[in-house]
């Protein structure tokens, strides 16, 4: 909406409001329903539209008592208010915290605005419910018990029409309405702060209240996305030590599909599809503390228990010297030397303000590595913001990264966006596929890195940002520089420390990785494994999709298991089997540099035939490893000697992988 249209709309709103003042009906559709309802309430309650704002705070002793009673809310809100203030960077905004009656408990913000607001009775101790102050975001959010934005002429009292305000109710961990958070500014300058923004801040306050209220309980943080655990959007369940659910925050209720009343009847294992003791055991064993677990109903979530504290320790059989607590990156160390080297190098950079460039093929685990690095850094409490530079259309990436002010685009009313760089303030910005960034953007990014400040599109003031930068690419940036596609100066900025992650086919820890992923996939219980045949196939596959592909293959195979716990070749997905079938690496290959062998025509006519071939390959490999000793090979494969003989009869006499030392005489031992 253009300025003119906005002006015309506000004029209409003002004339509608005057109609309501005069006791006439307002035309439906001209004003938001929530505003009209509020005006109607104000008129019914006899609120005087042109009344002077009275400075009538509640008496001093009553205020002291209120502040005391609301100590927990104020404590929970203070860090959020501070963070918001920092973000606003002296923009003409103010943040107000009210109690459940609408009494102002805190009011901070831009000095000029605060002064104007004080003159209109926005002060600590003054009540801002609708009865006292007419339609206003705080009072209307209180009356409606939902987030509202009240802009300019939508205010019922004339003297408040200079403001634009957005407010949302705050609930305590028991579901009781406990206060309101409001962000206001001048209506002439800008539109209301978007409701989701205020809701996010409220969510943060509510999560904070949870932590304070249930300091002696077990707090379980969970979300369907692992990267959302620890953020404002996470679900939090409060559990007694016996596994009874005491409470759950709003995000948690939504994820679990419960309401607060119903939660009181639940135990951990009636919400999650896992025994509580087993879950705690699993948390103890998990290096990073993040465990995948199913909700009843099948939704998979990632969960962790509040760091360090509230998992009741197992009574020790005998005292052991305490082991150093595992660190997040440790959980990526499954035994491969190149990965260990990458972890060591990355650790040296932590906290040193060095930009890190992670190189590796697609799916090699670059983003997972970056997340663990962030979790181990002093910034772990800050956000981890990932941007895939190749996935966002070129026309959008600039605004996505650097943000835009409201009205920066034609059409005017499009809401502002702070952008990913500013979102990462205090935390880590992860730029994936940096080699795909357009040259113009590279220049802007370089400026941000040099100035440590970001200027949103349409903005006037640069916004200082404090970020750790981790970039990733599967491309060779040096050759992109040589081709003139990547700025050399940016390359040096990004490459404070280069880390290389090996492709899966070069890793020496495949078996450990498989077990690790199976453990992750199943919440550690019961224990799943792959059969020796499958492991042999895995070892001989080139894994073009690297860890991502391995993860997907195991996930799909687990879904095919019935009662057993061992993944056999016939559990593997058909497309994977075909891929293996057409691209097996030669047995003598050392795995160091090989890409995929040229695809060969499939040897079988259908999946069943291909599976048979796979089994033969596995047998062949086992026999080779055991120097032709069929008994040992059979034991290793977990099949009978007869099975091996039967399968061997199917082996083509020209079996391409038949090793030279496979003497006929040994067959039959
Ligand atoms: N250390 C690990 N252990 C187990 N699984 C992993 C590990 N690292 C990555 N994965 C699996 O591989 C998937 C892809 O990882 P990630 O997104 O980090 O790769 P990437 O190198 O960033 O890929 P791309 O280049 O395509 O963006 C993850 O979602 C996860 O399933």
For the secondary structure, the number of strands is 19
Q: Describe the largest sheet.
A: 5 strands, antiparallel
Ligands (ions, cofactors included): adenosine-5'-triphosphate
Query: Structurally, how many domains make up the residues?
Result: 4
Q: What best-fitting shape do the alpha-carbon axes yield?
A: elongated
**So, CATH architecture of the largest domain?**
3-Layer(aba) Sandwich
Mean pLDDT: 79
How would you name the CATH homologous superfamily of the largest domain?
P-loop containing nucleotide triphosphate hydrolases
Q: Could you tell me the radius of gyration in angstroms?
A: 31 Å
GO biological process, one term: regulation of DNA-templated transcription
Keywords: ATP-binding, DNA-binding, Nucleotide-binding, Transcription, Transcription regulation
Pfam families: AAA_lid_14, GAF, HTH_8, Sigma54_activat
Protein name: BmoR
Summarize the structure.
The chain is built from 26 helices and 19 strands. The protein is α/β, with parallel strands linked by helices and 669 residues long. It is elongated.
What this model shows, in words?
By secondary structure, this protein is an alpha/beta fold. The chain has 4 domains: 60-191, GAF domain (Beta-Lactamase, 2-Layer Sandwich); 214-305, Beta-Lactamase, CATH 3.30.450; 330-502, 3-Layer(aba) Sandwich (Rossmann fold); 525-666, no CATH class. The protein is 41% helix and 14% strand. It has 26 helices and 19 strands. The chain has a 5-stranded antiparallel beta sheet, sandwiched between helices. A 5-stranded antiparallel beta sheet has the order 8-7-6-10-9, with helices on both faces. A hairpin with an 8-residue loop joins strand 14 (453-454) and strand 15 (463-464). Helix 4 packs across helix 8, helix 20 crosses helix 22 and helix 24 packs across helix 26 (641-650). The relative contact order is 0.06. Mean pLDDT is 79; it is low at 308-323, 585-611 and 651-669. The protein binds adenosine-5'-triphosphate. Adenosine-5'-triphosphate is lined by residues 332, 360, 362-368, 432, 472, 474, 516-517, 547-548, 551.
């Amino acid at each position: 909406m253009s300025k003119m249209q906005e002006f015309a709309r506000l004029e209409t709103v003002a004339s509608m409001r005057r109609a309501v003042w005069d006791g006439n009906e307002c035309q439906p559709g001209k004003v938001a329903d929530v505003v009209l309802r509020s005006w109607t309430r104000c008129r019914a309650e006899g609120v005087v539209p042109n009344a002077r704002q009275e400075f009538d705070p509640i008496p001093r002793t009553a205020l002291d008592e209120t502040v005391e009673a609301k100590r927990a809310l104020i404590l929970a809100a203070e860090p959020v208010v501070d963070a918001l203030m920092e973000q606003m960077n002296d923009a003409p905004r103010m943040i107000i915290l009210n109690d459940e009656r609408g009494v102002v408990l805190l009011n901070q913000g831009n000095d000029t605005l605060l002064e104007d607001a004080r003159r209109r009775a926005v002060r600590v101790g003054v009540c801002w419910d609708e009865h006292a102050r007419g339609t206003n975001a705080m009072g209307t959010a209180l009356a409606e018990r939902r987030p509202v934005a009240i802009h300019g002429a939508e205010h019922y009292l004339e003297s408040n029409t200079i403001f634009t305000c957005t407010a949302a109710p705050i609930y305590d961990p028991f579901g009781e309405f406990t206060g309101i958070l409001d962000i206001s500014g001048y209506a002439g300058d800008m539109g209301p702060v978007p409701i989701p923004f205020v809701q996010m801040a409220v969510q943060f306050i509510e999560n904070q209240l949870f932590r304070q209220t249930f300091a002696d309980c077990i707090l379980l943080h969970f979300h369907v996305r692992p990267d959302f655990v620890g953020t404002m959007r996470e679900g939090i369940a409060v559990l007694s030590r016996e596994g009874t659910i005491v409470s759950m925050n709003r995000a948690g209720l939504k994820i679990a599909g419960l309401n607060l009343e119903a939660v009181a009847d639940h135990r951990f294992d009636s919400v999650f599809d896992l025994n509580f003791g087993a879950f705690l055991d699993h948390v103890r064993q998990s290096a990073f503390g993040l465990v995948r677990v199913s909700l009843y109903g099948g939704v998979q979530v990632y969960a962790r228990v509040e760091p360090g504290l509230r998992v009741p320790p197992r009574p020790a059989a005998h005292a052991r010297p305490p082991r150093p607590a595992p660190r997040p990156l440790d959980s990526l160390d499954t035994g491969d030397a190149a990965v260990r080297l990458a972890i060591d190098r990355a650790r040296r950079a932590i906290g040193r303000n060095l930009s890190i460039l992670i190189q590796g093929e697609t799916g090699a685990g670059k983003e997972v590595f970056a997340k663990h690095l962030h979790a181990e850094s002093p910034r772990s409490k800050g956000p981890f913001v990932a941007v895939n530079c190749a996935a966002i259309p070129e026309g959008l990436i600039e605004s996505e990264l650097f943000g835009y002010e409201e009205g920066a685009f034609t059409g005017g009313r499009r809401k502002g966006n702070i952008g990913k760089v500013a979102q990462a303030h205090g935390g880590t910005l992860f730029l994936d596929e940096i080699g795909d960034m357009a040259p113009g953007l590279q220049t802007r990014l370089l400026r941000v890195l040099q100035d440590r400040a970001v200027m949103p599109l349409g903005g006037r003031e640069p916004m200082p940002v404090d970020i750790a930068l981790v970039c990733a690419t599967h491309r060779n940036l040096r050759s992109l520089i040589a081709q003139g596609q990547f700025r050399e100066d940016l390359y040096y900025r990004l490459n404070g420390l280069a880390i290389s992650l090996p492709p899966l086919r070069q890793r020496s820890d495949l078996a450990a990785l498989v077990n690790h992923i199976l453990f992750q996939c199943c919440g550690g219980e019961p224990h799943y494994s792959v059969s020796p045949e499958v492991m042999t196939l895995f070892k001989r596959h080139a894994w073009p999709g690297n860890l991502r592909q391995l993860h997907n293959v195991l996930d799909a195979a687990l879904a095919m298991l019935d009662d057993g716990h061992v993944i056999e070749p016939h559990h593997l997905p058909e497309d994977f089997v075909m891929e293996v079938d057409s691209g097996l690496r030669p047995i003598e290959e050392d795995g160091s540099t090989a890409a995929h062998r040229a695809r060969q025509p499939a040897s079988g006519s259908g999946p069943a035939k291909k599976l048979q071939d796979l089994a033969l390959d596995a047998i062949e490999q086992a026999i080779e490893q055991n120097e032709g000793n069929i008994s040992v090979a059979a034991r290793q494969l977990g099949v009978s000697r007869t099975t091996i003989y039967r399968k061997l009869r199917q082996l083509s006499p020209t079996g391409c992988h038949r090793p030279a030392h496979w003497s006929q005489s040994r067959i039959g031992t």
